[in-house]
What does this fold into?
Amino acid sequence: MGITTERAVETDPKKLEGLVDYKAVQLHFLAFFIYLAIVLLTGLSYSLQFLQKYPFPGVEILSPGRVRMVHTQGVAYGMLANGLFAILHYIIPKLTSFEVWSRKFGQALFWIYNTLVVGAVVLILAGYAQGLEWAETPKALDPLIAVTVVAMVVNWIVPMWKARAEPFYVSLWYILAALLWTPLVYVMGNFLPEYIFAGTAGAAISSMYIHDLVGLFVTPIGIAGVYYLLPVVMKRPLYSHALSIIGFWGLAFFYPLNSTHHYLYSPIPMWAQYASIVASIGVHVVVYTVIFNIFSTIGSDWKQLVTNRPVKWIFTGALFYLITCIQCAVQVTLSAQEIIHFTDWVVGHSHFVLFGVFTFWITAWVYWLLPRIWGVELYSNTLSRWHYWLAMLGIAIMQVDLLAAGLVQGMMWKAMAPFIESVSASVPFWWTRTFTGVMILTGEACFLVNIYMTWQESRRLKHGKKSLNLEVSREAH
Amino acid sequence: MKLIEKFSGVFLLAGFFLFFGATLSLGIVPALMVDRVHPRLGLPSEVPEDFKVYYASAQLYGDALLLGRDVYIAEACWHCHSQFVRPAGNETLRYGPVSTPGEYNTILHLPQLLGTRRVGPDLSREAGLKSNDWHFAHLWNPQGTVPESIMPRYPWLFDLDENGLPVPNAKGIALVAYLQNIGYEFKDRAMSQWDHNDVLMPPTEDLALETTPSSEATSSSGDEAWE
It folds into this structure.
């Protein structure tokens, strides 16, 4: 029961191509690359603090605590947001067959948004962070970011509004819902616990923000991207439309209810904690439908897993998505929480989700879209293979390592070992973690070099063509 | 055409109703419940004995607590130190009485600093566990007090005097004032029963009472109140 992946089939593909603002797409991908580098470097140097080998000890603006916030904020608002925005700039015009509201406005918003993110990094390093998890952007910048995000949403919702009469392809449901949720989530999470609700009341709201940022912004747009890209690169229809309906409505229903599982056993009312546990287990409906859909689509021509680069990245991301979500249902239970909460287990889980799943999916997009825009082949297959294996093995080993570290820490705490012994016992795990960080950094360096050389190649080609044209025209004269 | 595949369906049902339903039920309602049951606490009305040297009035002390809280946020202390004791994992033995919502309804927890990670120990029963001097020495060089510690140094919380020796500056003193205020109501009982840096087995006779701190027990020293 496959369906056509885009209405491009009915309209003129060339005309659709002209609707995409490729400048905005490339700008957002450029920002994605820059933040990717920043995030990896800050993460690696912060991990060295755990080995008492931090490269800048005693420097106020590079204090590990502040650098950690640059790492997490860079991941959320710098790297992932820009990667996803690039995908939105491509998908929405393609699926609605209308341009974004205004190209100039969209590009201006790119500069405004990224100026704000850079401003947030500078202010965090200067010591003006906000005390809310995943919302450390300084208080002064929050209203500006909120307004910018609303403006972006308007820019993208206009083409969807123009196409409202038709039923949407599944990617557009996810995108539309995410566009609506993102500003609401941002305002809720940055203002309510900062100014109105204190203590446990604030924690109830804040946990909602922690989860909704991933569940209602990153996840839906990431899945929308995969549902679009996979059929296009495989030239196969999506396996099941019905499953995608169940998955989408499951996400819309269960994800917003997951929040309190970040503060289990806390003084937040217990019924809210129980509700979030049940909803977190319910998320499996969402995950299995998405995973089954992706795997079955790939299964219809599984050889492409080897021959088709984006398919390989999507598959690996989906496999990791499945693993994290099985983990999720185990770790939200109160008996597991007793041991693993407050430990490195949670750190491992979040790295696996944000890097192993969503960064991999964005990587699939980069490998497919950028060479296509530039009209060249990828510079080096070898580099891209190194990238894949180093990043994939790096994050997989890091994951196993941090889960094990989490169990050791949690067990030692429960067994009443002196706290500092649990720190000493974790050191070998932290060495492994830093090592896997170096692996990932090396892999991503191959990626960045590869993309840069591909871009150089395209410039050379463009230049070459121009001069060639020039010669031809001279000859004609 | 089915509504659930169309713009209006996704927009209204998924975008608005499900999101607001969840936010109301799991965000706003618990928040209002807690707010109603426990009135918002203000800042302390007296300066503790140890801090009379630094702060002449309760007003100045209150301002220092807020400044200390801001330093705690700016340095992201809360990323590695949580501030709540769970009724699980033997935490009552290690840290002290289980946390209750009332403790947190204070201006010092706006925004909340419960935390989600323990690279270092929980701080919710920190008041009085260590001396002020220990805290200053620890912030200047954590490895000086705990050799295996992986906590970074915070030299910018100190100024150097004419002999080149570190003296805590306003921010440093405020941070220690804040740390010595976390869980202040449990101070005396914590002092008499726990020392969470070393192996700890609490006095057995008080075990049953740990989870139910009453206002009586916290206003005077723990042992007297229960005798």
The radius of gyration of chain A is 23 Å. The CA atoms of residues 250 and 285 of chain A lie 6 Å apart.
